[in-house]
Design a protein that fits this description.
This protein has 263 residues and is of the alpha/beta class. The chain contains 11 helices and 8 strands. The protein has an 8-stranded mixed sheet with strand order 3-2-1-4-5-6-7-8, sandwiched between helices. The protein is elongated, with a radius of gyration of 21 Å.
């Protein structure tokens, strides 16, 4: 399958890296093509993934089977208007937040199959989350879903909850990285050197993710390591006093509001 990336920024590069991972079989990897109004961004995409760079959006559509729209939400309408006449049955997948399938359909030629995907940066390593809606992909549905499934776990979400799912999946790595960073600093504050503290913090979080994934019981994992009167429960008490849960809820609400332009 030939996949065109319209826009070659950060997330497009993560997609390209994920689709060209060496552990994928040759017949699984799509052939990638890229276009960006910034030539340096397109060259970087080519350098990290071997994608073929083209000189115009029209060339991109003509060379590919699937178009993945990777521009900013404010740029999507103009970007699609520029290639609409070249879309002859091509499915289009938008990774733009806050632009619904129905809106995308209005901007595209009649009969164009449209899907939505919100990947997080971990797709670059094949361990990502992709918030997904089939939209109007129709006959292309299975092939396009298979393509995005190569990047990690595909989670289908009703479109009316797409913004909320986007925050948890795509903003979540930023929140989690901040927690790990603070955890590292806390280890240094009690006497560990930076490298040791970083290794311990990252290892603790990574191991916890696997425990929760296997048990599907986040609270159960927390209770299992919280010995009555012990060290863990003493630390959790301080996190609760600091209102960790309300702070995270507020962060998610703020991100959703920003995505909707309501802040």
């Amino acid at each position: 399958m030939d996949v065109g990336l319209l826009g070659c920024g950060h997330i497009a590069t993560a997609l390209a890296e994920g689709w060209t991972r060496p552990e994928l079989a040759d017949d699984e990897r799509p052939r990638l093509w890229g276009y960006d109004i910034r030539p340096e961004a397109a060259r970087h995409l080519a350098d990290v993934s071997g994608a073929t760079v083209v000189g115009t959006p029209e060339e991109l559509v003509d060379a590919t089977d699937v178009l993945v729209v990777c521009v900013r939400p404010t740029e999507v309408r103009d970007a699609l208007a520029g290639v609409a006449t070249h879309l002859k049955g091509h499915p289009v997948v938008s990774i733009a937040a806050s632009i619904s399938t129905s809106t995308l359909v209005e901007w595209l030629p009649e009969g164009t199959g449209v899907g939505r995907a919100i990947p997080n940066v971990a797709v670059a390593r094949g361990h990502g989350l992709v918030v997904w809606a089939d939209g109007t992909l129709g006959a292309w549905r299975d092939d396009v879903r298979t393509l995005f499934s190569l990047l990690g776990e595909l989670i289908e979400v009703p479109e009316h909850l797409f913004d909320e799912a986007t925050v948890v999946a795509a903003c979540g790595p930023g929140f989690a990285a901040l927690f790990i960073e603070a955890f590292e600093e806390a280890g240094v504050a009690v006497g560990l050197d930076w490298q040791t503290s970083a290794e311990l913090a990252l290892g603790a979080v990574a191991g916890t993710v696997e425990l929760v994934r296997r048990s599907e019981d986040t609270g159960g994992v927390r209770r299992a390591v919280s010995t009555p009167g012990g060290m863990t429960i003493a630390g959790i008490e301080q996190l609760e006093l600091a209102r960790l849960r309300p702070a995270l809820m507020a962060a998610v609400r703020a991100a959703v509001a920003r995505g909707r332009g309501q802040d």
